[in-house]
Design brief:
Layout (H helix, E strand, L loop, with lengths): L5 H14 L4 E17 L2 E19 L2 E7 L4 H17 L23 H4 L3 H17 L2 E18 L4 E17 L5 E8 L7 H14 L9 E7 L1 H12 L4 H5 L25 E3 L22 E5 L2 E2 L6 H7 L9 E4 L6 H6 L3 E15 L4 E14 L2 E5 L2 E6 L1 H4 L3 E4 L3 E3 L7 E4 L2 E12 L3
Parallel strand pairs: 7-12, 11-18
Antiparallel strand pairs: 1-2, 1-4, 2-3, 4-5, 5-6, 7-19, 8-9, 8-11, 9-10, 12-13, 13-14, 13-15, 15-19, 16-19, 17-18
Helix pairs in contact: 4-5
Length: 445
């Protein structure tokens, strides 16, 4: 089905709301064209495009709710979806945490759409794969990668007169490059809202360099080390921390932001003075939807951590009403300040340490301290006197991002980290951190 413009989305939303006999009605419509190409062992394995538009209608009789979805938009199908949602609502038990549909809102649009990204076609995807594969072959390496692009729209509406519409686009790229004997491995990820900001040659060169340099890795004793975490490695750790800024979890004693004896740690200094984090849907590098898709509340520029101090928690409509607080849209991005140095410059200022390209297979050990365990992979190197001396075998680590952000020595220049989803993006720096806890070795490359 073709993507709907704003007028078409508004007309369909109005029609669905008019069909409803319930006390209230909420509508969300999303449409996406998702293109991709995948390759492995220097050969393309799959490629394709998925195009879909879907409407979800949610109705309520008092505190009884029902939802139905449909991807056909003729009058008969729309009415059928509304009646199905109403039937479900009548059968459903009352929701004790039900919150009425919000009033009409003003959404300030963000720059989530790029014509260059929307114009990506099969030829563009094929060229991405070809450049990456050919570059690997020139160095007798084997590449496996995935490129995906998304363009589409989101629309929301309710029976209180609320309506929002916004177009979206994004792309994501990852590639793992290995030596033919499997002893060396390099990896890179890139994400961009605008295709003009994506350079497959630059990205592939990073993975190739790491693969060539990671051969003949030496074992290093586990222990606490100064580490330089590249942004992709950092994102896997602090991304889980950002997801724990929920006020209800904190107030109920279920997170690292819970205060002993009850309540939360809003206003407390928990991190190094250098840690400053905020959300901004209008940021030029990581723009996101102007509203939270769950509550339909507008997103705002919000200071989350300032000079190491907790400045804001996420309050859902229900929990805000219960606690007498103000609800706001959940953040769609997280932005962390840094310095002006590149990862290479951080390495140059390090006497002894370890460079970590990537962290993966991460699991939470303890929600109260946010202790995580995981592994390094695809390029781990020993640094001595400002230079990479040799590759080292990968480690398992046990570390909390809370502790990590208290042990910062220096922050580098922030870069965009994300996937092919426009709904959550990060702009974060590489970090030099002391006393990072490596607990054992891993033979995997």
């Amino acid at each position: 089905m073709k993507q709907l413009n704003q007028e078409e989305a508004k007309r369909i939303s109005d029609k669905v709301i008019a069909l409803s006999r319930a006390d209230e009605c909420r509508v969300s419509i999303s449409g996406n064209r998702n293109g991709n190409i995948r390759y492995a062992r220097n050969s393309v394995s799959t490629s394709g495009v998925v195009d879909n538009t879907q409407l979800s209608v949610s109705v309520a009789f008092g505190k009884r709710q029902g939802t139905a979805s449909v991807n056909e938009f003729d009058d008969q199908s729309l009415e059928k979806a509304v009646r199905r949602a109403e039937d479900v609502a009548r059968l459903a038990p009352e929701n004790p945490e039900f919150q009425p549909a919000i009033k009409q809102q003003q959404y300030k649009a963000s720059s989530t759409y790029s014509a260059a990204t929307a114009a990506i076609d099969p030829d563009f995807r094929a060229e991405v794969a070809a450049h990456s594969i050919n570059a690997a072959r020139k160095h007798n390496l084997v590449a496996a990668g995935f490129f995906s692009d998304t363009t589409g729209f989101e629309a929301v509406a309710n029976s209180n007169g609320l309506f929002g519409y916004q177009e979206l686009s994004n792309l994501g790229f990852t590639v793992t490059t290995r030596t033919e004997d499997g002893r060396g491995s390099g990896w890179v990820t890139r994400s961009a809202n605008d295709a003009a900001k994506f350079d497959v040659r630059e990205a592939s060169a990073v993975a190739i360099d790491k693969a060539l340099r990671s051969v003949e890795a030496k074992a290093l004793e586990p222990g606490r080390y100064t580490v330089i975490l590249e942004p992709a490695a950092t994102s896997e750790l602090i991304g889980r921390m950002f997801g724990a800024f929920d006020a209800r979890q904190a107030d109920e004693g279920r997170s690292f932001l819970s205060k002993k004896g009850g309540g939360n740690r809003l206003g407390e200094k928990l991190f190094d003075q250098q840690v400053n984090v905020w959300a901004d849907p209008w940021d030029k590098d990581v723009p996101v939807l102007a509203w939270d898709g769950q509550s339909m509340l507008p997103r705002e520029r919000t200071s989350v951590i300032k000079d190491g101090r907790i400045e804001a928690l996420d309050y859902s409509l229900f929990w805000a009403a219960k606690q007498g607080k103000r609800a706001s849209g959940r953040h769609g991005n997280m932005i962390m300040s840094g310095g002006g140095k590149s990862t290479e410059e951080l390495i140059a200022s390090t006497k002894k340490g370890i460079l970590v390209t990537r962290t993966w297979y991460i699991r939470q050990v303890d929600p109260q301290s946010l202790l995580l365990t995981g592994l390094t992979r695809d390029g781990t190197f020993y640094i001595e006197n400002g230079k990479i001396k040799h590759p080292v075998k990968n480690f398992r680590f046990n570390e909390s991002p809370v502790s990590m952000l208290n042990n910062i020595e220096e922050l580098g220049k922030p870069v965009v980290i994300g996937g092919d989803e426009v709904r959550y993006q990060m702009l974060i720096p590489p970090m030099k951190v002391r006393d990072f806890n490596f607990t054992s070795l891993s033979d995997a490359v």
